[in-house]
Amino acid sequence: MLKSKTFVKKTRKGGVLKVVREHYLRDDIWCGSAACGECPQDKPVLEAEPEIDSSLCGFPHYLIPDTNVVLHQMDVLADSAIRNVIVLQTVQQEVRHRSGTTYQRLRDQSNNPDKNFYVFTNEHHRETYTEREQGESSNDYNDRVIHVATRWYNKHLQENRKDGDAPKVKVVLLTNDRENREKAQKEGLLAYTVHQYVKSLSGNPELVDRLAQVDMGESTDSDIKNESTGRVLFPEHLPLSQLQTGIKSGRFLQGSFMASRENYLEANVLVHGDESRSIFIQGHAHLNRSVNEDVVAVEMLPEDQWKCPSSMVLQDKDGDEETSEPDLGSPKARSNAIPSGRVVGVIKRNWRPYCGVLQPSGIKEATRHLFMPAERKIPKIRIETRQAETLQGQRIVVSIDGWPRNSRYPKGHFVRKLGEVGDKDTENEVLLLEHDVPHQPFSQAVLNCLPSTPWGITKEDLACREDLRDLPICSVDPPGCTDIDDALHYLEKPNGNVEVGVHIADVTHFIRPNTPLDQEAANRGNTVYLCDKRIDMVPELLSSNICSLRGKEERFAFSCIWEMTKDAEIVATRFCKSVICSKAAMTYAEAQMRIDDKNRNDAVTFGLRGLNALAKILKKRRIDAGALTLASIEVRFHVDSETHDPIDLETKELRETNSMVEEFMLLANISVAKKILSDFPSCAMLRRHPQPPPSNYDILIKAGKSKGVDIETDTSKSLAVSLDQATIPSEPYFNTLLRIISTRCMMQALYFCSGTLPESDFFHYGLATPIYTHFTSPIRRYSDIIVHRLLAVSINADKSFPDLLDKYKSQALCNNLNFRHKMAQYAGRASVELHTQLFFKNKVTEEEGFVLFVRKNAVQVLIPKFGFEGTIFLKSQDGRGVDSPFVFNEEESSQTAGDVKLRMFDRVVVQITVETSHIQHQKLRIRLVKPEVPGFSVPPVATSDKISEPPVKKVKT
Amino acid sequence: MCHKIRHPRYWLILPFKMAGLEIISDQGYRIDGRRSSELRKVCARMGVFTQADGSAYIEQGNTKALATVYGPHEVRKGRGKIQHDRAVVNCQFSMATFSTGERKSRPKGDRRSQEMSMHLRQTFEAVIVTELFPRSQIDIYVQILQADGGNYCACVNAATLAVIDAGIPMKDYVCACTAGFIQDSPLLDISYVEESAGAPFLTVAMMPKSEQIVLLEMNSRLHADNMEKVLDLATQGCKDVFAVLDRHVRDHVSESHALMTAS
């Protein structure tokens, strides 16, 4: 049967366009129920006798949720207790329209055979199609559509029972909208609210906690009455239509809300479409219930109300509903005021479930509790739970449901429990979840894609690869590395030139496109390194065995071989798939020893010396071109082999051999980038690093000035030069500190697909090269796998496949890789932080540190030995600071107390302890020891060792 | 059930998914309710005009086309075009001003309709047995009355019926159909909404009995691995169209026969 659907649509230009679409009604859409004897369906999704203990519905039944129930109560629907649900197409489409993430979760449910979720295409079903009446609102229409489908199901299941004796299966409509429910009940349908239904589930009392707190219709009134204070704390959010007109007219600006990590009352909004522009927001009312990462509409404040960031470190401490605001803005500092605004509405919430802990409550039997997220940018969340007692001291996951105007905190509900606070596995789990790192074990489907063991090289393999097994190839890696993905060789040629080869593990030989293994790797994006474990991108058999270029074993490689002059000028480049046999797998230290040991003269050592000489030329050339050498301190933990607790730590140290390997990897990446770009101008996967906007450097320039050093930041070259010159002989650590600060001024490097950007944007600022990509670590990065595939196609070693050449899919993949890369970095840092805490547990340590930033009420201190940064609060948090001897001088950013003055780069001695008074939120506490400030600094610990000198290079291998 | 925490998943948002439109659902239904290998409803009438030598009207879903055929007759304009061994086929494609959502006057000679006319000419020169009519000309005029995707196909199918109505001998029917490749699945007979999703699609005109392809056109790049799937689907589509057209022709002939014998 054919129906035509006619509607009017507004075009982008503002004109009105009539759209006519066909709408076919079918009679081959089945009901999906195993209890039905009529529909000729293969595998019915819904069970014939659904079992669930409900005191409200004591008969077998299926559930039909309406749109709002799906949108708000997804956590309940996702629970394994809820099964046999009919999802109407109308509901699914509406959910898709309203929230992408919920839609995705709903899809996951219907793809999971254990959940028995059936999607019924009701709008194309001949008997459930409902025509919209004239003047009917879309809400009423949707309600009616759902009623029609529910009624049809009831009738259909009753009339077409397969087994006459079986109890009748009924359909229960779940809706929280009172009007809708009453209308349905009038029509004789079974309709309940989710709350009624979930509370009636006698077998699953824990589900009640997962109910979201937003209530539609009836309960809103009582909610307001229940609220302890009837006061309205926040200004109203404007409706979306008003926001849109406002944005169009330029009165409002749309942007992403980025909460400040240091001060919960401050945030910046990055304006969309103009990436360099950000608007400063300060204070409860102006922040107006925005949560980190929301898309918001902002109204600019008049210039005389502009504020300046308070340079204060503030943490949300008060547990009550008070909104006492500490004095943030100092009117004197008007000259520093930056463009400020206030949030007038939220365009899109980007809430996700958050990990954290419950704040202990004073009253024992209370059901309303505050939840403290682990992420400092997220406000506390009020939840209702009856199991608070058991949740104390546990890491839990909570979702936000809404943020009413009269509530100081957003409201949410409990999702699940992770484990005990402080337990290392739980904490690891938390940081993996918080950074969205996929860390489940590999599924069977993925493992099935692995080659069978024992694995060996066959004749066919040799026929299509170059045999490079006789070359003196060796690999150099950090100690303990099991996923070796690169190896090198060096040969002198008769014509006076040299041959240099970089051999990369041929992972794409094993990971074929579009297999489950490939999809899993693409989703994971990269291997994540935590201090005590590694979350692999590909299963261990590949990463640590078959693909790893281990010493004295035959392996497949993808080789990039140059012919160079002895001055490191490339004469020719070629790429090939090969078979290699690494002669030695060395650590950096071992390689260094070989180079230095004059008595050794074997081929590998000879090669290493040659490579080292070339690398020095390459490095010099690169630095002359303006490549930056930046600094960050990385630490390694020595872990106790039994308890897995960190027992000692050292800062990573760099040897000549590190930079030798790095130089050739850079060279290989650049050569490959050129090759794939020339063969695939529109779909090559490359990596770019944009130049930071000049304002990013303000802090660096200011820091330099405080010591009388000028830093030039026009180009990467001038920055590199001025960083090199910025040394103060009396302060040997000054240069490193400057480099650390300049690292923070940089932009993120990004993967992108070459067809999506103009060629002028391809350049890599940090490496000072016009084009760059990642080719050298396919075991731990998915981008390299794509690059390998592209290169293989361009040298005719492999076939292409559709997704590889599709620039949109390629860019979508890049977006995922960029996201995963960022998250992997954050997770790695969080892991170091966690281990640092464990390391300092039950210890009082004194250590040397340097002042990195001076804030209004605190100084941030970097402790090089441990590579971490801590905050010393100089004043109480409300900023009034009557009890503190320190006086803040904003002009020269210093803090003075008596004759002691703290300025940037000053050397201090601090005492580090783990604050255990607050069991929920353990954190490192650092206190000032030197310079001594009476009444503020703490006396040195008598037993402590003498303060160590600026980081001594400890060699521990 | 392990609950998974999600951040925004940029990776799942494919760029060609239009806002609020899902070209094909997980259940395998397209926006208009068809499955991926189903044609739109085809309605046809032959002999709609009496003054022309042959004429036909076809509806493929919301795409509607009218075709008229004159000839074979002597070459009128441009005697230089005369072919001594065969007939010249002259095609003209046009779109009615009211054929789209917005009324728009469409000059006959614009690039798109010229191209379309040329494609039609190529198609019909290949199937009409032109050697039977040396030094003459056959005119085929096609107009799109309503456009909703697959304009060329509707034109070819209408013109086939009109040529048959005119009694001009053809080697075989020529049937046309489109097939697109959207969200990793091949879709048959794509409508305007599906066309505007920006994915590649293939237009095929073929002689269904011999499976000879008369015209093949692709609008954008499609990977060779997928080409076969899409082409197979389009071929099947052409055969399905043929079945419908053939039934209409036979019905029409038996109707006319009945009329003639009755009178």
Automatic annotation (TrEMBL), chain B:
<dbReference type="GO" id="GO:0071028">
    <property type="term" value="P:nuclear mRNA surveillance"/>
</dbReference>
<dbReference type="GO" id="GO:0016075">
    <property type="term" value="P:rRNA catabolic process"/>
</dbReference>
<dbReference type="InterPro" id="IPR036345">
    <property type="entry name" value="ExoRNase_PH_dom2_sf"/>
</dbReference>
<comment type="similarity">
    <text>Belongs to the RNase PH family.</text>
</comment>
<dbReference type="GO" id="GO:0003723">
    <property type="term" value="F:RNA binding"/>
</dbReference>
<keyword id="KW-0698">rRNA processing</keyword>
<keyword id="KW-0007">Acetylation</keyword>
<keyword id="KW-0963">Cytoplasm</keyword>
<dbReference type="GO" id="GO:0006364">
    <property type="term" value="P:rRNA processing"/>
</dbReference>
<dbReference type="GO" id="GO:0005654">
    <property type="term" value="C:nucleoplasm"/>
</dbReference>
<dbReference type="GO" id="GO:0000177">
    <property type="term" value="C:cytoplasmic exosome (RNase complex)"/>
</dbReference>
<dbReference type="InterPro" id="IPR001247">
    <property type="entry name" value="ExoRNase_PH_dom1"/>
</dbReference>
<dbReference type="InterPro" id="IPR050080">
    <property type="entry name" value="RNase_PH"/>
</dbReference>
<dbReference type="GO" id="GO:0005730">
    <property type="term" value="C:nucleolus"/>
</dbReference>
<dbReference type="Pfam" id="PF03725">
    <property type="entry name" value="RNase_PH_C"/>
</dbReference>
<feature type="domain" description="Exoribonuclease phosphorolytic">
    <location>
        <begin position="172"/>
        <end position="236"/>
    </location>
</feature>
<dbReference type="GO" id="GO:0000176">
    <property type="term" value="C:nuclear exosome (RNase complex)"/>
</dbReference>
<dbReference type="InterPro" id="IPR027408">
    <property type="entry name" value="PNPase/RNase_PH_dom_sf"/>
</dbReference>
<protein>
    <recommendedName>
        <fullName>Exosome complex component RRP41</fullName>
    </recommendedName>
</protein>
<dbReference type="GO" id="GO:0034475">
    <property type="term" value="P:U4 snRNA 3'-end processing"/>
</dbReference>
<dbReference type="InterPro" id="IPR020568">
    <property type="entry name" value="Ribosomal_Su5_D2-typ_SF"/>
</dbReference>
<dbReference type="GO" id="GO:0071051">
    <property type="term" value="P:poly(A)-dependent snoRNA 3'-end processing"/>
</dbReference>
<comment type="subunit">
    <text>Component of the RNA exosome core complex (Exo-9), composed of EXOSC1, EXOSC2, EXOSC3, EXOSC4, EXOSC5, EXOSC6, EXOSC7, EXOSC8 and EXOSC9; within the complex interacts with EXOSC2, EXOSC7 and EXOSC9. The catalytically inactive RNA exosome core complex (Exo-9) associates with the catalytic subunit EXOSC10/RRP6. Exo-9 may associate with DIS3 to form the nucleolar exosome complex, or DIS3L to form the cytoplasmic exosome complex.</text>
</comment>
<keyword id="KW-0694">RNA-binding</keyword>
<dbReference type="Pfam" id="PF01138">
    <property type="entry name" value="RNase_PH"/>
</dbReference>
<keyword id="KW-0539">Nucleus</keyword>
<feature type="domain" description="Exoribonuclease phosphorolytic">
    <location>
        <begin position="38"/>
        <end position="169"/>
    </location>
</feature>
<dbReference type="InterPro" id="IPR015847">
    <property type="entry name" value="ExoRNase_PH_dom2"/>
</dbReference>
